[in-house]
Amino acid sequence: SSEYAAAQMLKLFSDSLPVPLEIELLTNDFHDLQKYGAECPIFKQYRVLLIAGTMDPKVDRVPYVAIEDIISGNSGVISSCLSAYLSETQIRELNHEMLVHFSLNNVMENITILNPNKLLELVVASIDEMETYFQLQLNGRDKIGLYLHVSCLIERLVTKRCEKENADLTMFVKEKHDFITGVKTCFQETLEHYQVELPVNEILYLYEYIVKDEKEVKRYRGE
Questions:
Q1: CA geometry: angle at 201 spanning 199 and 202, to 5°?
Q2: Does the reported pTM lie above 0.90?
Q3: Using CA atoms, how far apart are residues 206 and 202, in angstroms rounded to an integer?
Q4: Dist CA 47 CA 42 (whole Å)
Q5: In what helix (H) or strand (E) does residue 64 lie, and over which residues does it extend?
Q6: Which residues contact 66 (CB under 8 A, 6 or more apart)?
Q7: How far is CA 211 from CA 31, 92, 215, in A?
Q8: How does pLDDT run across 88-124, given as a tens digit for each residue?
Q9: Which string of DSSP letters, residue by residue, matches 17-63?
C-alpha cells in the first residue's frame, strides 16, 4: 500500500542519517497535500523543510524532492534543506547510506543462500575501491545497479549457477589487461571471502557499465 511504502521510505531515510537530528520525519496523505496545499493541517503544526515522495503535490513555498533523486544522490534539495543540520561530509554520508540501505532491500529480495548484509558490505567496499582505483565518480543509479548485479553474480558463482563464457574475449583481454587486473585487485577481498573467481565476461560487463561505449563493447564481444 502507499502508506506502507511511505513508512518504508521514512525508515530508510531515518536509518541512513549519520547523526540524530532535531527534526521529525512524518508521513502525510498525498491527496490531502494536493487538495489543501499550504492550508493542510500539517503546515499549521510544523515548519516543514521539504516534501519527499513519488509525485509532487505542488505545495507553494515547500520544496519537493523525488524519492528516486534522494536514493540516487542526485538531489540538491536535500543538501540545501539540511545544510543547517548536517555538514557537507555528513550529507555525502547520508546519500551513500541511502544508496546502501536501498540496495540492501533489493539484495535481500534476490539473494537466497548468502548473508545479504555481509555480501553487500563486501560488494560496496569493492566498488568504492574500484572508484578510487580508476578515479571514477559513479552516479547513484549506476551504483545501485552495480551493487545488485555484483551481489547476484557472487551468489551465482558460489552456487555454480553462472553461465559459461561463449564469446571469444581475446581482444578484450589483450587490450584491457590493466582494467582486468585492476578490477580483480579491487574485488580481491570479496572474491577471497567467497572463494570464487571473477569471469572475464563479467569484467567486460563492468567495463561496459563504466565506459558506456556500446560500439567498443560490441567489438570486444565480436558482434
A1: 70
A2: no
A3: 6
A4: 9
A5: strand 64-66
A6: 52, 53, 54, 56, 75
A7: 43, 24, 11
A8: 899 888 888 888 888 888 888 888 889 998 999 999 9
A9: -SS--SS------HHHHHHHGGGSHHHHHS----EEESS----TTS-
DSSP states along 109-135:
HH-SSS-HHHHHHHHHHHHHHHHHHTT
Burial class (CB in 10 A: 0-12, 13-18, 19+), 154: buried
Neighbouring C-beta atoms of residue 117, cutoff 10 Å: 12
Residues 65-81 have pLDDT tens digits of 887 777 766 667 888 88
- Cα-based distances in Å from 180 to 56, 69, 111: 44, 32, 26
Q: Which residues contact 130 (CB under 8 A, 6 or more apart)?
A: 136, 182, 183, 186, 187, 206
The overall longest dimension of the chain from CA atoms, in Å, is: 67
**What number of other Cβ atoms are within 10 A of residue 37's Cβ?**
15
pLDDT digits (tens, 9 = 90+) for 194-212: 999 999 989 998 998 888 8
Cell of 192: 577471497
Check if the beta carbon of residue 201 is closer than 8 Å to that of residue 165: yes
